[in-house]
């Protein structure tokens, strides 16, 4: 029996050693040292951004032969469920790209590594306040790195302003001016009794509905929810929230400067309406500049951008950076951090004066939310992009409340659309949403 045990043990050791050697050979291409694979989960889809990222991965691997960056590409719609499946299955990636909804959800379950001791004070000083806000947890830790993002501004058709007898260089700067200007831009251009040119639109379909609704509340001086006394509290029951929501609805139902079919607009549909002249002004993001140029080359010189009109609460422009995070469950945190440092600190070979990460953000038509990048963009971005930089001063992100995304998916999209269509009053809609959010908070 003893001899049989020794034989079995010897066989087991042989299998283990053979398997390990085979694994090492497969992972390192036969090298004597094991290559660490950093699993990188991201949503990059713009071809120019992918080119920059792929080049950076190759350069990093050449400089660090012991590390291999394994990319998994997905889209923003599928990313949350795919990431959760990997976590539940015990195979989470090492490094991920997140938007605020994902950040709040996974921060809430402790999925992100604490980077507080890794990020230098010099780097923090270079970040814009909106960057610092989004990577800082409610208890003051830092768990991410800001990357590509955008602000949202007002696009307007100068040619349609002129036809309406308006100053093409003086877009509306307040809510009152928006309504006053808007009424002059509403036209029955072919005199068939049907309005075919409206003044202003914003995306309301699908995930767009809540994103723009909260901007109206921000302009009225309201938050969606706040973290107080170690818990999240809804602010949807406040007078400012009602004021912002009511103004949004009134643009369609009372002032009638926004088309009644606006609930059919996503960002691209709205862009098409802007180019065709269905709306003379639109609220949209920086990436839309390239889309307008592509869809309406004949409009060159006939449209412009400006910061969004201010509400009674003062200027408030929706916008934020997306983020990178190292997962707490990662066994390769050091290697993932080294790759991030390479992206943020290595000079770009594509854009003089930028790092690789700066070029990555520029390729998206957006920006890196740092003082250095803003200085570069002020000098190098075309005039039509400058208002997006101006908006950074009063930039506000959607709430990082972990229950916000749940409320959003369950109720917000439908209720915002119903309020905009006049099917439910803003007061009743807000009461319902406030009540549901507080239930989700457990308050």
Give a summary of the structure in a few sentences.
The chain is of the alpha/beta class. It is built from 18 helices and 12 strands.
Features:
D-Maltodextrin-Binding Protein, domain 2, disordered N terminus, globular, alpha/beta, 443 residues, 18 helices, 10-stranded mixed beta sheet, two-stranded antiparallel sheet, 47% helix
> What is the C-level CATH assignment of the largest domain?
Alpha Beta
Fraction of residues in helix = 40-55%
Task: Give me the count of strands.
Answer: 12
**First-residue to last-residue Cα separation:** 66 Å
Number of helices: 18
Radius of gyration equals: 25 Å
Shape type? globular
How many domains, as an integer?
2
- The CATH architecture classification of the largest domain is 3-Layer(aba) Sandwich
CATH fold group of the largest domain? D-Maltodextrin-Binding Protein, domain 2
Tell me the series of helices and strands, N- to C-terminal.
HEHEHEHHHEHHEHEEHHEHEEHHEHHEHH
* Contiguous uncertain segments of 5+ residues: 1-32
Structural class: alpha/beta
Q: On the 0-100 scale, what is the average pLDDT?
A: 90
Structure description:
Helix 9 (208-220) packs across helix 10 and helix 9 (208-220) packs across helix 17 (404-420). The protein has helices spanning 2-28, 47-63, 79-88, 100-108, 121-126, 129-135, 158-163, 175-185, 208-220, 239-253, 267-276, 288-295, 333-345, 356-363, 371-380, 386-390, 404-420, 426-441; strands at 36-42, 67-73, 95-98, 145-157, 198-201, 225-228, 231-234, 279-285, 303-306, 317-326, 367-368, 395-396. It folds into 2 domains: 37-150 and 319-395, Periplasmic binding protein-like II (D-Maltodextrin-Binding Protein, domain 2, 3-Layer(aba) Sandwich), CATH 3.40.190; 151-318 and 400-441, 3-Layer(aba) Sandwich (D-Maltodextrin-Binding Protein, domain 2), CATH 3.40.190. 43% of the residues are buried. Residues 1-32 have low confidence and may be disordered. The strands form 2 sheets. Strands 1, 2, 3, 4, 5, 8, 9, 10, 11 and 12 form a 10-stranded mixed β-sheet that branches. A two-stranded antiparallel sheet has the order 6-7. The longest helix has 27 residues, at 2-28. It has 443 residues and is α/β, with parallel strands linked by helices.
């Amino acid at each position: 029996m003893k001899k049989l045990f020794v034989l079995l043990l010897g066989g087991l050791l042989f299998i283990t050693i053979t398997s390990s050697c085979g694994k090492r050979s497969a992972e390192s291409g036969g090298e004597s040292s094991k290559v660490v694979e950093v699993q990188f989960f991201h949503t990059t889809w713009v071809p120019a951004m992918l080119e920059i990222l792929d080049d950076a991965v190759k350069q990093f691997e050449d400089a660090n032969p012991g590390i291999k960056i394994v990319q998994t590409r997905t889209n923003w719609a599928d990313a949350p469920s795919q990431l959760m499946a990997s976590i539940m299955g015990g195979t989470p990636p090492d490094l991920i790209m997140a938007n605020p909804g994902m950040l709040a959800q996974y921060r809430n379950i402790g999925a992100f590594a604490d980077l507080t001791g890794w990020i230098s004070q010099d780097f923090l000083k270079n970040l814009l306040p909106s960057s610092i806000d989004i990577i800082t947890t409610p208890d003051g830790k830092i768990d991410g790195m800001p990357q590509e993002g955008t602000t949202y501004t007002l696009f307007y058709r100068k040619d349609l302003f002129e036809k309406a007898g308006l100053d093409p260089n003086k877009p509306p700067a307040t809510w009152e001016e928006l309504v006053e200007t808007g009424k002059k831009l509403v036209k029955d251009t072919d005199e068939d009794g049907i309005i075919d040119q409206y003044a202003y639109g914003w995306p309301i379909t699908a995930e767009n509905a809540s994103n723009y609704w909260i901007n109206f509340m921000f302009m009225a001086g309201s938050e969606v929810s706040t973290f107080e006394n170690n818990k999240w509290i809804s602010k949807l029951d406040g007078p400012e929230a009602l004021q912002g929501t009511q103004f949004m609805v009134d643009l369609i139902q009372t002032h009638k400067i926004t088309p009644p079919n606006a609930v059919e607009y996503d960002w691209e549909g709205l862009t098409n309406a802007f180019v065709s002249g269905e709306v003379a002004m639109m609220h949209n993001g920086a990436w839309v500049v390239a889309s307008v140029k592509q869809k309406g080359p004949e409009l060159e010189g006939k449209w412009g951008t400006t910061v969004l009109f201010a509400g009674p609460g003062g200027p408030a422009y929706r916008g934020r950076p997306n983020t990178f995070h190292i997962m707490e469950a990662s066994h390769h945190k050091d290697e993932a951090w080294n790759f991030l440092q390479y992206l943020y600190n290595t000079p770009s070979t594509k854009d003089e004066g930028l790092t690789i990460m700066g070029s990555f953000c520029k390729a998206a038509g957006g920006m890196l939310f740092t003082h250095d990048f803003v200085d570069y963009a002020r000098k190098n971005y075309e005039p039509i992009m400058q208002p997006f930089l101006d908006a950074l001063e009063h930039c506000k992100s959607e709430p990082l409340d972990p229950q916000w995304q749940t409320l959003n998916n369950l109720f917000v999209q439908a209720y915002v659309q119903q309020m905009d269509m006049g099917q439910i009053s803003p007061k009743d809609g807000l009461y319902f949403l406030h009540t549901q959010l507080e239930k989700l908070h457990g308050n």
